[in-house]
Prior knowledge:
This protein is an alpha+beta fold and 311 residues long. It is built from eight helices and 17 strands. A hairpin with a 4-residue loop joins strand 5 (87-93) and strand 6.
Amino acid sequence: MCGIAGLIHRGTTGDIGTEMTAMLQSLKHRGPDSTGFALYGSPKGNTLIMRFKVAEQEDMKHGFKIHDQVIQRKAEVDKRLKELGATIVQAEDATEYAFRYTLDFGGDKKKLANYIEDIDGAEILSLGYGLELIKDLGDAADVSGAYHLKGFKGSHALGHTRMATESDVDIRSAHPYWAYPFADVSVVHNGQLTNYWTGRRGLERRGHRFMSNCDSELIAVYLADKMQQGADLKDAMTDSIDELDGVFTYLVATADSLGMAKDVMAAKPMVLYESDTFIGLASEEVAIRSVFPHEIDTFDPYEGEVRVWKR
């Protein structure tokens, strides 16, 4: 059991860091192992924002050399960015092992991502113009506090609370997932895909790489690949209902949109609130009411339903 949540402000922005923290904290009981946020701020031209880590939280508690290794790995990241012509406009230490870089870079993002992730322990969590993906062990209050997410202004967001059932309890296995190498595409998912390996092998033959064995990452890359071939977001999601097997409900975000899809069995819960200015979705209504404590009308989407909203 996991918890997923999404929100989008229409025609305006809001404190999506505080809003998503409240939504995910109310879903803590559905997934206590890790929490993740995909937050969409206001893009600034072609300036890229790269969120990355060079170690796991658990690594920092063991071994005598890890603290020196973190420093060495970060220095190697800086060196390789310079080699590829990327200028670090701003570098921030989110934690001892996770970082936020603002980059001036007009080159090949896939080549950049591959070169950085070739460094031992390095993983790019997101690389985009509006998207910032933050995930770590602990509940929403823990992660939001450690990464100073309250007060984050933006238009839309996704979030996930994870109960590990198939893979490790670490940042690599935490959600959301960025659809490497496509900027600004992220996914959260509740359920299980039964044709994961078939789908993964097909996408790997098309040149895509996977950082985890999690089926949620497959959905992200699947949708991004569809859009790269010319499909719009809603068409790609509609195809997924037929082409992805299993029981699932997922949320996806792009630079300007938020979407939801339920499989035809609709066994995984989703509650939706929609007004002229705000849309909120979550595994349980309590998450939406953490943002709107007054009386509101919510409803459950139908089986096989796909919806997309623009910011």
